[in-house]
Write a structure and sequence with these properties.
The chain is α/β, with parallel strands linked by helices. The protein has eleven helices and 13 strands. The protein has one domain (9-270): Spore Coat Polysaccharide Biosynthesis Protein SpsA, Chain A, CATH 3.90.550.10.
Length: 274
Protein backbone atom coordinates (compact mmCIF):
# COMPACT_ATOMS: atom_id res chain seq x y z
CA UNK A 1 0.00 0.00 0.00
CA UNK A 2 1.26 3.48 -0.85
CA UNK A 3 2.31 5.64 2.07
CA UNK A 4 0.12 8.67 2.87
CA UNK A 5 0.83 11.69 0.73
CA UNK A 6 2.34 10.00 -2.33
CA UNK A 7 -0.76 9.59 -4.50
CA UNK A 8 -0.66 11.75 -7.62
CA UNK A 9 3.14 11.71 -7.89
CA UNK A 10 5.08 10.70 -10.98
CA UNK A 11 8.85 10.67 -11.33
CA UNK A 12 11.58 11.52 -13.82
CA UNK A 13 14.93 9.79 -13.41
CA UNK A 14 17.60 11.56 -15.42
CA UNK A 15 19.91 8.87 -16.76
CA UNK A 16 21.20 10.07 -20.14
CA UNK A 17 24.60 11.45 -19.11
CA UNK A 18 27.89 10.16 -20.47
CA UNK A 19 29.69 9.91 -17.13
CA UNK A 20 32.86 11.35 -18.68
CA UNK A 21 34.71 11.68 -15.36
CA UNK A 22 34.36 7.93 -14.80
CA UNK A 23 36.11 6.91 -18.00
CA UNK A 24 37.30 4.31 -18.90
CA UNK A 25 34.54 2.58 -16.85
CA UNK A 26 31.80 4.44 -18.70
CA UNK A 27 33.32 3.61 -22.07
CA UNK A 28 31.95 0.12 -21.45
CA UNK A 29 29.01 0.57 -19.07
CA UNK A 30 26.48 3.35 -18.28
CA UNK A 31 27.01 5.32 -15.10
CA UNK A 32 23.43 4.82 -13.78
CA UNK A 33 23.99 1.05 -13.83
CA UNK A 34 27.30 1.12 -11.95
CA UNK A 35 27.15 -1.46 -9.17
CA UNK A 36 27.01 -0.37 -5.55
CA UNK A 37 27.01 -3.26 -3.16
CA UNK A 38 26.64 -5.53 -6.18
CA UNK A 39 23.38 -3.98 -7.42
CA UNK A 40 22.88 -1.34 -10.14
CA UNK A 41 22.56 2.21 -8.86
CA UNK A 42 19.38 2.78 -10.89
CA UNK A 43 17.80 -0.24 -9.24
CA UNK A 44 18.03 1.46 -5.85
CA UNK A 45 16.29 4.55 -7.23
CA UNK A 46 13.47 2.56 -8.80
CA UNK A 47 12.88 0.42 -5.75
CA UNK A 48 12.89 3.49 -3.48
CA UNK A 49 10.21 5.08 -5.66
CA UNK A 50 8.20 1.85 -5.70
CA UNK A 51 8.42 1.48 -1.92
CA UNK A 52 6.64 4.81 -1.31
CA UNK A 53 3.96 4.24 -3.94
CA UNK A 54 5.10 6.67 -6.63
CA UNK A 55 3.10 6.27 -9.83
CA UNK A 56 4.61 5.88 -13.28
CA UNK A 57 8.27 6.69 -13.84
CA UNK A 58 9.94 8.18 -16.91
CA UNK A 59 13.65 7.43 -17.49
CA UNK A 60 15.56 9.21 -20.25
CA UNK A 61 18.39 7.34 -21.97
CA UNK A 62 21.15 8.25 -24.40
CA UNK A 63 24.63 6.99 -23.51
CA UNK A 64 24.78 3.19 -23.82
CA UNK A 65 21.06 3.34 -24.52
CA UNK A 66 20.81 -0.31 -25.51
CA UNK A 67 22.18 -1.48 -22.16
CA UNK A 68 19.88 0.91 -20.32
CA UNK A 69 16.83 -0.33 -22.23
CA UNK A 70 17.69 -3.97 -21.53
CA UNK A 71 17.71 -3.16 -17.83
CA UNK A 72 14.49 -1.11 -17.89
CA UNK A 73 12.51 -3.63 -19.93
CA UNK A 74 12.83 -6.32 -17.28
CA UNK A 75 9.49 -7.83 -16.19
CA UNK A 76 9.66 -6.08 -12.83
CA UNK A 77 9.46 -2.64 -14.43
CA UNK A 78 7.24 -3.37 -17.42
CA UNK A 79 4.11 -1.21 -17.45
CA UNK A 80 5.45 1.07 -14.70
CA UNK A 81 8.59 2.56 -16.25
CA UNK A 82 8.50 4.47 -19.53
CA UNK A 83 11.64 5.10 -21.56
CA UNK A 84 12.43 8.38 -23.31
CA UNK A 85 15.11 7.87 -25.98
CA UNK A 86 17.15 10.99 -26.62
CA UNK A 87 19.13 10.73 -29.84
CA UNK A 88 20.66 14.07 -28.91
CA UNK A 89 20.66 14.96 -25.19
CA UNK A 90 17.99 17.53 -24.40
CA UNK A 91 19.43 18.77 -21.12
CA UNK A 92 17.59 18.54 -17.81
CA UNK A 93 15.13 21.34 -18.57
CA UNK A 94 14.66 20.06 -22.11
CA UNK A 95 13.77 16.58 -20.88
CA UNK A 96 11.19 18.04 -18.50
CA UNK A 97 9.67 20.12 -21.31
CA UNK A 98 9.55 17.12 -23.66
CA UNK A 99 7.71 15.10 -21.00
CA UNK A 100 5.15 17.78 -20.20
CA UNK A 101 2.14 15.69 -21.26
CA UNK A 102 3.31 12.73 -19.18
CA UNK A 103 3.63 14.89 -16.06
CA UNK A 104 0.55 17.09 -16.63
CA UNK A 105 -1.52 17.43 -13.47
CA UNK A 106 0.94 15.54 -11.26
CA UNK A 107 3.45 16.48 -8.62
CA UNK A 108 6.73 15.39 -10.22
CA UNK A 109 9.77 14.01 -8.46
CA UNK A 110 12.95 14.67 -10.45
CA UNK A 111 16.26 13.04 -9.61
CA UNK A 112 19.66 12.64 -11.22
CA UNK A 113 19.77 8.86 -11.21
CA UNK A 114 23.55 8.73 -11.31
CA UNK A 115 23.75 10.08 -7.75
CA UNK A 116 23.90 7.69 -4.80
CA UNK A 117 21.18 8.79 -2.40
CA UNK A 118 19.75 7.06 0.64
CA UNK A 119 16.90 8.97 2.24
CA UNK A 120 13.25 8.73 3.25
CA UNK A 121 11.50 9.68 0.02
CA UNK A 122 8.14 9.33 1.74
CA UNK A 123 9.11 12.03 4.25
CA UNK A 124 10.41 14.21 1.40
CA UNK A 125 7.09 13.95 -0.43
CA UNK A 126 5.07 14.49 2.74
CA UNK A 127 7.01 17.67 3.52
CA UNK A 128 6.39 19.01 0.02
CA UNK A 129 2.70 18.15 0.15
CA UNK A 130 1.90 19.36 3.64
CA UNK A 131 4.65 21.51 5.19
CA UNK A 132 6.53 23.46 2.52
CA UNK A 133 6.24 27.25 2.83
CA UNK A 134 3.37 28.82 0.92
CA UNK A 135 4.11 30.01 -2.60
CA UNK A 136 6.87 27.49 -3.35
CA UNK A 137 6.19 25.31 -6.43
CA UNK A 138 9.58 23.58 -5.97
CA UNK A 139 11.07 21.64 -3.07
CA UNK A 140 14.79 20.94 -3.32
CA UNK A 141 16.55 18.17 -1.42
CA UNK A 142 19.74 19.40 0.25
CA UNK A 143 22.66 17.64 1.90
CA UNK A 144 25.84 18.59 3.72
CA UNK A 145 28.94 18.17 1.59
CA UNK A 146 32.57 17.70 2.59
CA UNK A 147 33.68 19.39 -0.64
CA UNK A 148 31.56 22.54 -0.98
CA UNK A 149 33.76 23.99 -3.73
CA UNK A 150 32.66 21.15 -6.03
CA UNK A 151 28.91 21.58 -5.43
CA UNK A 152 26.13 24.08 -5.79
CA UNK A 153 25.82 25.62 -2.33
CA UNK A 154 22.47 27.12 -1.33
CA UNK A 155 21.62 29.96 1.00
CA UNK A 156 18.23 29.90 2.71
CA UNK A 157 16.13 32.23 4.80
CA UNK A 158 14.90 31.27 8.30
CA UNK A 159 11.99 29.31 6.79
CA UNK A 160 14.29 27.20 4.61
CA UNK A 161 13.44 28.97 1.34
CA UNK A 162 16.34 29.36 -1.10
CA UNK A 163 17.52 32.94 -1.51
CA UNK A 164 20.92 32.39 -3.13
CA UNK A 165 23.04 29.94 -5.14
CA UNK A 166 26.82 29.58 -5.28
CA UNK A 167 27.73 27.15 -8.04
CA UNK A 168 31.17 25.55 -7.59
CA UNK A 169 32.91 28.65 -6.24
CA UNK A 170 36.29 28.69 -4.51
CA UNK A 171 35.09 29.92 -1.11
CA UNK A 172 31.37 29.11 -0.74
CA UNK A 173 29.42 30.41 2.26
CA UNK A 174 28.60 27.07 3.84
CA UNK A 175 28.34 23.34 3.17
CA UNK A 176 24.62 22.87 2.47
CA UNK A 177 24.39 21.74 -1.14
CA UNK A 178 21.75 21.21 -3.78
CA UNK A 179 21.13 17.46 -3.94
CA UNK A 180 19.65 17.62 -7.47
CA UNK A 181 16.46 15.90 -6.29
CA UNK A 182 13.31 17.98 -6.60
CA UNK A 183 9.55 17.92 -6.28
CA UNK A 184 7.77 20.14 -8.80
CA UNK A 185 4.21 21.37 -9.00
CA UNK A 186 2.37 21.56 -12.37
CA UNK A 187 2.80 25.33 -12.64
CA UNK A 188 6.50 24.74 -13.24
CA UNK A 189 5.66 22.93 -16.49
CA UNK A 190 3.44 25.81 -17.57
CA UNK A 191 6.40 28.14 -16.98
CA UNK A 192 8.71 25.88 -19.03
CA UNK A 193 6.21 25.73 -21.89
CA UNK A 194 6.71 29.47 -22.41
CA UNK A 195 10.50 29.01 -22.58
CA UNK A 196 11.09 26.07 -24.93
CA UNK A 197 14.76 26.88 -25.54
CA UNK A 198 15.90 26.26 -21.96
CA UNK A 199 18.17 23.25 -21.48
CA UNK A 200 19.68 23.25 -17.98
CA UNK A 201 17.42 23.11 -14.94
CA UNK A 202 20.03 24.14 -12.36
CA UNK A 203 21.44 27.19 -14.14
CA UNK A 204 18.53 28.36 -16.32
CA UNK A 205 15.41 27.48 -14.31
CA UNK A 206 16.19 27.51 -10.59
CA UNK A 207 17.59 31.09 -10.48
CA UNK A 208 14.24 32.36 -11.78
CA UNK A 209 12.52 30.85 -8.73
CA UNK A 210 14.70 32.31 -5.98
CA UNK A 211 12.47 33.00 -3.01
CA UNK A 212 10.05 30.27 -4.16
CA UNK A 213 12.09 27.08 -3.60
CA UNK A 214 11.54 25.19 -0.37
CA UNK A 215 14.23 22.87 1.01
CA UNK A 216 14.14 19.46 2.69
CA UNK A 217 17.38 18.24 4.20
CA UNK A 218 18.67 14.70 3.66
CA UNK A 219 20.76 13.71 6.67
CA UNK A 220 21.50 10.32 5.12
CA UNK A 221 23.90 9.34 2.34
CA UNK A 222 24.15 11.58 -0.70
CA UNK A 223 27.05 11.23 -3.11
CA UNK A 224 27.83 12.17 -6.68
CA UNK A 225 29.59 9.01 -7.87
CA UNK A 226 30.94 10.82 -10.91
CA UNK A 227 34.61 10.32 -10.02
CA UNK A 228 36.51 7.09 -9.39
CA UNK A 229 37.18 8.17 -5.82
CA UNK A 230 33.50 8.78 -5.03
CA UNK A 231 32.38 5.55 -6.69
CA UNK A 232 34.97 3.70 -4.62
CA UNK A 233 33.78 5.45 -1.46
CA UNK A 234 30.18 4.45 -2.18
CA UNK A 235 31.24 0.80 -2.07
CA UNK A 236 32.02 1.28 1.63
CA UNK A 237 28.56 2.64 2.43
CA UNK A 238 26.05 0.25 4.00
CA UNK A 239 23.73 -0.90 1.22
CA UNK A 240 20.07 -1.30 2.13
CA UNK A 241 18.55 -4.72 1.95
CA UNK A 242 16.50 -4.89 -1.24
CA UNK A 243 13.12 -6.62 -0.87
CA UNK A 244 13.16 -8.82 -3.95
CA UNK A 245 14.95 -11.85 -5.26
CA UNK A 246 17.27 -11.60 -8.23
CA UNK A 247 15.72 -14.24 -10.43
CA UNK A 248 15.25 -12.79 -13.92
CA UNK A 249 17.57 -13.28 -16.87
CA UNK A 250 19.06 -9.79 -16.70
CA UNK A 251 20.03 -10.05 -13.03
CA UNK A 252 21.69 -13.43 -13.56
CA UNK A 253 23.61 -12.01 -16.52
CA UNK A 254 24.63 -8.92 -14.51
CA UNK A 255 26.10 -10.98 -11.67
CA UNK A 256 28.87 -12.16 -13.97
CA UNK A 257 29.44 -8.88 -15.80
CA UNK A 258 33.09 -7.67 -15.93
CA UNK A 259 32.08 -4.28 -14.51
CA UNK A 260 32.09 -5.81 -10.99
CA UNK A 261 35.77 -6.68 -11.30
CA UNK A 262 36.57 -3.26 -12.75
CA UNK A 263 34.84 -1.50 -9.85
CA UNK A 264 36.53 -3.80 -7.32
CA UNK A 265 39.93 -2.98 -8.82
CA UNK A 266 39.06 0.70 -8.74
CA UNK A 267 38.06 0.49 -5.09
CA UNK A 268 41.31 -1.22 -4.19
CA UNK A 269 43.34 1.36 -6.11
CA UNK A 270 41.59 4.38 -4.59
CA UNK A 271 41.67 3.18 -0.98
CA UNK A 272 39.15 5.86 0.00
CA UNK A 273 38.90 7.20 3.52
CA UNK A 274 35.83 8.63 5.16
Amino acid sequence: MARPGVRGVRALLLAAGTGSRLRPLTDQWPKPLMPIGGRPLLEYWLESLRSVGVGEVLVNVHHHAEQMVQFLERPRYRGWVRIAHEVHPLGTAGTLSAGREFFAGYTTLVAHADNWCRCDLGAFIAFHRHRRPEGCPITMMTFDTLAPETCGIVETDPTGVVVGFHEKVADPPGTRANGAVYLLEPELFDWLAQRPDLRDFSTEVLPSFLGRIATWHNSGIHRDIGTPEMLALAQQDPSPGLPWTENDAWSHWFKDHPVHRLVADLTAACEPTR
